[in-house]
């Protein structure tokens, strides 16, 4: 990429989140991630080029020096902060504007600083030689969110030990109009390591993707959240896309049947990718922390099952990092206040504590060498605050699973139709969106936590009462729940 010869025609809109807008290159497997500002204060509050560059460099450093050692070398890709010609950025902004979803247009792309983060395009496999000529690679993006229940003694509301944050937050978001339907996805099912629970979690993501699930084909998004879309129709459309990857070409199955088979195959491939690891050891998860009362699972599935994740699989790495938040926001808040107090008295220490970076090796050391018990020191408080922020990043990251068919001559031959052998896939798994979470947002997190919990208690209290008294009947009651759409118990 020659920075002085940038042409907006080589780039197209790829997607966006709350903080950034992403464009992809039409020829090379690269994306540019640009900052966004809210429209009201775009003119006033935009950063200078130097500030924006520093901000992006901080993201690169944090991802490389902090998150990569925690999440694993193989899952995290290095990005690079780049300075682009302002002319190019302005043209690009005009070009992508019409493709942006309306719901995201409360913010504008940064056209002032010319700075961006350049990353490999994870929706395209660049290293696979066998798939180039054949089918375009598929890429599944999952934002898994927090996968465990807190066990901190500082938690004051019992419900937080029973129902996971995601499931409670769903009720809050529905009430505030963020989504029109509740998602039945529960992260604790995804992180359980139990293939049946994981399959169900992915089925629920497919049914109601919100901003937790997307599918790309050849780098183009073919499935994501559409707020008022007809879900069933979308699923059939999706199955049409996936059919060539998962069904032998001469298959005689009718449309509906084959959609079910195809989506089920997709789910199985996702589960294998999420659990794949070279390490034969297992991480055992304590049962009390991987069971959410809001999840629609049959009790039998939860009982008598061994909850473990293969050591070093992507879910194990993410969960381990999320669990650095071991005090819960309720236990962390007093420590945040200790740091605040200390900084009022000794403002110059802000930089030696590395509150705003630099995110270097010594930042990671502060996390790893934090005393195990509160000795009343400021170092302990700073270490816990840093750990909490790192955990927040891991609770908000996305997993990208890129899959390509391989050796399809053996796999999808018509003559094998009677006993179709499964096509073989190669996949690569990556983790993205590893930005540092601002120190200043901790009080906001604390308030948000009580709002979500209180709302949940208010809106579902009668059920919870029932649930507490009669939890044995929960599974029985919901047994008739329609799981037939795409999910087949193995
Ligand atoms: P959020 O508000 O969800 O946290 P964000 O503003 O932090 O989002 P990202 O999640 O980094 O932004 O990027 C937005 C979208 O762009 C992602 O959901 C993903 O689909 C796409 N994307 C980001 N980085 C890459 C990449 N390296 N390769 C391919 N696609 C990417
Ligand atoms: Zn849950
Ligand atoms: Mg993000």
Bound compounds, each kind once, are:
adenosine-5'-triphosphate, zinc ion, magnesium ion
Supply the helix-strand structural class.
alpha+beta
In sequence order, what are the helices and strands, one letter per element?
A: EEEHHEHEEEHHHEEHHEHEHHHHHEHEHH
Strand segment count: 13
Strand content: 5-15%
Question: Would you kindly provide a written description of the structure presented here, covering whatever features stand out?
Answer:
The structure is a single chain. The radius of gyration is 23 Å and the shape is globular. Helix content is 42%, strand content 15%. Residues 409-420 and 467-490 have low confidence and may be disordered. It is α+β, with helices and mostly antiparallel strands and 490 residues long. The longest helix has 28 residues, at 442-469. Strand 1 (11-16) and strand 2 form a beta hairpin. The chain has helices at 42-45, 49-71, 86-97, 165-175, 187-190, 195-207, 231-246, 255-275, 299-302, 314-322, 328-345, 349-352, 361-368, 378-396, 408-411, 442-469, 472-477; strands at residues 11-16, 20-25, 30-38, 80-83, 107-109, 115-120, 138-142, 213-217, 220-223, 282-284, 308-310, 398-406, 424-432. Strands 1, 2, 3, 4, 5 and 6 form a six-stranded antiparallel beta sheet that branches. The protein contains 17 helices and 13 strands. Adenosine-5'-triphosphate binds at residues 14-20, 22, 31, 33, 119-123, 141, 211, 214, 396, 398, 432-433. Magnesium ion is lined by residues 17, 19, 396, 433, 435.
